[in-house]
Amino acid sequence: MIKFTFYLFSLVLIFAASRVITVKNPVHAALFLVLTFFSSAAIWLLLQAEFLAMVLILVYVGAVMVLFLFVLMMLNINFDTLREGFVRHLPLAIFVGLVILAEMVLVVGAWDHAMPTEVAAGSNTAALGSILYTEYVYPFEIAAAILLVAMIAAIALTMRPHTRAKYQKPEQQVKVRREDRLRIIKMDAETKD
Amino acid sequence: MTLTLNTTLILPEIIMLTMACVILVLDAYLPKNLKNLTYQLTQGTLIATAILIFATYPEKSELAMNGMFVNDVMSTILKLFILLIVFLAFLYSRQYLQDRKLLKGEYLVLGLFATLGMMIMVSANSLLTIYLGLELLSLSLYTMVAINRDSQQASEAAMKYFVLGALASGMLLYGMSIIYGVTGTLDLNAIAQAISQTTEHKTILVFGLVFIVIGLAFKLGAVPFHVWIPDVYQGAPTAVTLFIASAPKIAAFAMLIRLLADGMQSLHGDWQNILILLSILSMAIGNIIAIAQTNIKRMLAYSTIAHVGYLLLGILTGTKDGYAASMFYVLVYTLMTVGGFGMILLLSRAGFEAERLEDFKGLNQRNPWYAAVMLILMLSMAGIPPMLGFWAKWAVLAQVVQAGLVWLAIIAVIFAIIGVFYYLRVIKLMYFDDAEDLTPITANTDMKIALSANAILILMLGLMPSGLISLCLGALGVN
After folding, report:
1. Fewest CB atoms within 10 A around its CB: which of A182, B66, B289, B387?
2. Domain assignment of residue A13, yes or no
3. CA A65 and chain centroid, separation
4. In terms of residue numbers, what domain contains A150?
5. Which CATH number fits the domain that encloses residue A42?
6. How many CA atoms lie within 13 A of A131 on its CB side?
7. Predicted local confidence at residue B400, as pLDDT
8. Do B104 and A139 count as a contact with CB atoms less than 8 A apart?
9. What is the share, in percent, of chain B residues with pLDDT greater than 90?
10. What is the pLDDT of residue A79?
């Protein structure tokens, strides 16, 4: 059963990952990337790494990809110009791809394939939590302070409470009287020189 | 698993963090007529933290938070000085910021967070806490530089500071990860032990060390990693320049000592050569280029670079006496810098920035007392006896000679003499030129008193420097 689930999610993952780079529409590509993340989260669950699976979904799917989609939808990027020069850059791209492939073969070849058969009992979320809130409580709290500073900074640098934009107020424009706009001054007649 | 948290030792840090959060929330709800309260609370927090630190003055080095935090005599003295300098920095810059509508709650809270970051760095005993403290400090400083959003100059300075600061953090982190990879620990004492016992992986260790030193040099502003200093000092609002130029240097000194002396003393031979190079270049470039400046903020920026060169002299000897001399130097340097930028703030007023050298013309005619204050500060920075700055230079040079590097001491003296020129030029402008701008100098009473006390302190300590020197020697365990 586990094997079946693994192959199912792996197939979906490989399909989605290849669609990310082949579909024309960048929004679809981003959505396929979300599917890729979901499938890899499921595979992590099979490995009993439930914390990583949750973080992947919460952080990458929930935050990063949504941000990506927002950017894609808001910025009106002309993708045709981005695709130009595909043939021209192809030799370089193939070269870089081959180098990366060679490196991956080297790394995977040197890797000891033994999978951890026995996973330590208990949830690793609890294990991470108990070490984070005891042994590493001091750096954890400092990191929290850094995030707070980032928030203060973002607000202090971007929020403008007193906007300088000028609005029309129709209700006041309608109620305007002659005395508000027009001033009649009495003055002596001027003589030419 | 046994936990040794020793929470009482980090009580000052806890109070600081809590009060920063309280002030942040309170400031958002304070009515307009009570806005002064934010400033008073901020200064009160600094005083209360200083009292707490003084109350927990340690007899010997004590660890807390599972060995990530160390409370020793050096950290206590450095923290007290940081708090004093930040207190003075806020006091000097209050009127200036108010005139420019920058004295907002966020500014003061960011200042408190920066101070907290410095305190964490000073007391760090692990690569993790050093890095996190540094980031807390840096992030607050980037924002403070950019706080005047409508100034294009300040935004540009903040951008430069941010990009180069992030680059430096990356370098530092890369070096730290290599050291961690070789020794397998983040704890500085354990790293020191691991390095002294092993002879293999020496090349990788030195590789990591180089990255760490580059990161430190970026943060300190030592040549050739100094390019951001003049632009940031000039572009930032003067009050922020005052903040950046003073207290963070104490924290940077502590970071140097913790990383190089506590963690990697066994690699002294390797980092000594790098520091000698950085030191000579800093003294040369700083002192020579400062002569060509017409903007006093820029001139003081190059003067800072030169001072960093002298600061490194004591550390590169690798002896406890050398570290104590450098500690003395950094404390003296911050006292002088805070006064120097305080004078620029004093001469500035709403709609006018006294940042050109000409703005100091004929200061003696306008106000003889402040001219005398600036005279003391400039003579002290130049290192002319009997000012405090002389003893600082004396202390590091004596250690360099003691370490057998007489040629280095001679180079340092030559550049110090070149440097005297631009300090004396300020004095010449104040005393021998006629004033063009005869606006009377106005300031709050507290600023007048503090600035005068600052100068008198430099003069008095210059006449009797032994107390501060023995304090620094005691802090590093030299009797």
Report:
1. A182
2. yes
3. 5
4. 122-157
5. 1.20.120.1200
6. 5
7. 94
8. no
9. 73
10. 67
